[in-house]
Design brief:
Layout lengths: L4 H12 L6 H25 L5 H13 L4 E2 L1 H8 L3 H13 L3 E6 L2 E9 L1 H21 L5 H19 L3
Length: 165
C-alpha cells in the first residue's frame, strides 16, 4: 500500500521521539484529515444550493423529523449541538430566507414551534442529493463490506462521546 502524508508524519515522529508511542496518530490524524476533506466537500456541495453548513444542519433536522417537519427550538438545540441563543439567531435567519416558519406551540402557550416550509424542503432535499453524490465519490475506494466495517469501527469510537449529551 502506498504511503500517505500521515505515514510520513508518523515516521518522522518515530525518528525524533522513539520514546513515545505515536500509533494513535496513524488512526486519528487520518480521521482529522478526512474530516477536513469532508468539510470542504460539504462546502462545495452546498455552494450550488446557496446553503451554509449550519443551515443544512437545522433544515435537515426538521426534514428528518417527518411530517409536519417541525420541532421546538429546544429540540433543535439538542439535535444540532448549539446553544439556545445561537439557535434563536439561526431560526431568525432561516425565517428571513423563507425556509422555516414559527408558530405558537399548541402544548405550551409560551413556546414556539419551528416548521420547515415547502421552499425549505426543496432546498434541503437538493442539498442532501448533492452531499450524498460527493460522499459516494469519497467512499468509492472502499467496497460495501469495507464501508460497513469502517462504519462499525467509527461507531464504536464515537458512541462514548454521544452518551455525554
Amino acid at each position: 500500500m502506498a504511503a500517505d502524508d500521515v505515514d510520513r508524519i508518523v515516521s518522522a515522529w518515530r525518528r525524533e521521539r522513539p520514546d513515545v508511542d505515536v500509533t494513535p496518530l496513524e488512526v486519528l490524524s487520518r480521521v482529522s484529515r478526512l474530516a477536513r476533506r469532508l468539510d470542504l466537500a460539504r462546502g462545495r456541495a452546498f455552494a450550488g444550493t446557496g446553503l451554509e453548513g449550519w443551515e443544512f444542519d437545522v433544515l435537515s433536522a426538521l426534514r428528518r423529523r417527518g411530517e409536519p417537519y417541525e420541532m421546538s427550538p429546544g429540540q433543535l438545540v439538542a439535535e444540532t449541538l448549539v446553544t439556545s441563543g445561537t439557535m434563536t439567531n439561526r431560526v431568525d435567519r432561516l425565517l428571513a430566507r423563507g425556509w422555516v416558519e414559527r408558530r405558537p406551540d399548541p402544548a405550551d402557550r409560551r413556546g414556539v414551534i419551528v416548521r420547515l416550509t415547502p421552499e425549505g424542503t426543496t432546498v434541503v432535499d437538493d442539498a442532501l442529493d448533492r452531499l450524498l453524490a460527493g460522499e459516494r465519490e469519497l467512499l468509492a475506494e472502499l467496497g460495501p463490506t469495507e464501508r460497513d466495517e469502517l462504519a462499525a469501527l467509527l461507531r464504536r469510537l464515537l458512541r462514548p462521546f454521544e452518551t455525554e449529551r
